[in-house]
Amino acid sequence: MLQKTPKTTPSRYANQRMHYDEAIVFPILDEALFCTISYSVDNQPFSIPTAFVRKENKLYIHGSVGSHFLRQIESGIPVCISVMLTDALVVAKSAFHHSVNYRSVVIFSNAQRIDDYEAKASFFKELTEKIVPNSWEYLRPMKSKEVDKTMLLVFDISEASAKTREGMPSDDEEDQSLPIWSGLIPIPSKRLTPIPDELSVNIPLPSHLSN
Amino acid sequence: MLQKTPKTTPSRYANQRMHYDEAIVFPILDEALFCTISYSVDNQPFSIPTAFVRKENKLYIHGSVGSHFLRQIESGIPVCISVMLTDALVVAKSAFHHSVNYRSVVIFSNAQRIDDYEAKASFFKELTEKIVPNSWEYLRPMKSKEVDKTMLLVFDISEASAKTREGMPSDDEEDQSLPIWSGLIPIPSKRLTPIPDELSVNIPLPSHLSN
């Protein structure tokens, strides 16, 4: 179970929509490709979207060693990491009850920098396999100077929670017999057919990309 | 032109990928349904995803008058609003040059609360029409108590910028002749066929939802 603290307890829907169970939180993190990381300098918040990998109870991000953003947060200042998957628009009979079906996670944590070469190289493989499954062995192998140019940061996933909405609209009782259509419009993120660049027009699409 | 300030000038790709022109920033805001709003209390950042509407150079969000989040930011403390549309996974011949085609916006601003009834009612119409175009007139009309229960906040869009990546992978010159497929995997968010709830199985799908 994750830590339920004042920071991870919302003011509304605290019972129906909140989850502190890794079995709910981790699959959301594994399905989402991007998170938004927020940090604050003199109470001025900054937010950056970035790709990430979850492994056990840790979340990993990377970037250039020259990145201002990474240099700010590697000192271990408090960060808030948020992730949202949007599943459907919830179309009610009244505008007021329109909503969204979503699965979101918020993590409060602090960065730690990882300098170990093998850990960095292994992160690259895990990130690549998360974004394009089964592609790692097919690609040109990583070079050590590429690993060296990259900063890897890790965050504990401990003070964290998920918030989700699922199911149909909740219209007011007196509206339920109105002849107004209500239901869901699914809005999944879909992967479409790959488009080759000009160097690849004569290269067969590998099987890991054709499924 | 939007304000280019130290906060809206990144450490990397400051020339190629940054945009301060409303003609680039506003369409991204109009296409995105959700933003992430970050604020900070005693240097502890918090982030909340929420729906929004842009109108001229203002961004509007709403929520329950009981929302802890809205009550925190309505005082006018600094917020950072971020939006990201992900268009494609950029698959290079090496893992190192994998990337993402995206269109993102960051806005630094402060909330102002709007209590005017007509302004709040008109926001509801604009938000509903943004999320489900041409649906407002079809729905059960808004009730005044619904407007009263809702808090509306507005932010100036002035210190703001867009960051985008588009186009094909940028592989190293020595990799360009490798027989490894490279290109794009488009990952648009698609609206699928609406699914009626049990109150609506015998109600015809209105034309604004069937396109």
Write a structural description.
Chains A, B: InterPro entries: Pyridox_Oxase-rel, Split_barrel_FMN-bd. The structure is a homodimer of 211-residue chains. With 211 residues, chain A is of the alpha+beta class. Chain A has a single domain, classed as Pnp Oxidase, Chain A, CATH 2.30.110. Chain A is 19% helix and 37% strand. Chain A has helices at residues 22-31, 68-73, 117-131, 144-148, 207-210, and strands at 18-19, 34-41, 44-51, 53-55, 58-64, 78-91, 99-114, 150-156, 159-165, 183-186, 195-196. Chains A and B meet through strand 2, strand 3, strand 6, strand 7 and helix 3 of A and strand 2, strand 3, strand 6, strand 7 and helix 3 of B.
Break the fold down into its secondary structure elements and pairings:
The structure is a homodimer of 211-residue chains.
Chain A: E1 18-19, H1 22-31, E2 34-41, E3 44-51, E4 53-55, E5 58-64, H2 68-73, E6 78-91, E7 99-114, H3 117-131, H4 144-148, E8 150-156, E9 159-165, E10 183-186, E11 195-196, H5 207-210
Antiparallel strand pairs in A: 1-9, 2-3, 2-6, 4-5, 5-8, 6-7, 6-10, 7-8, 7-9
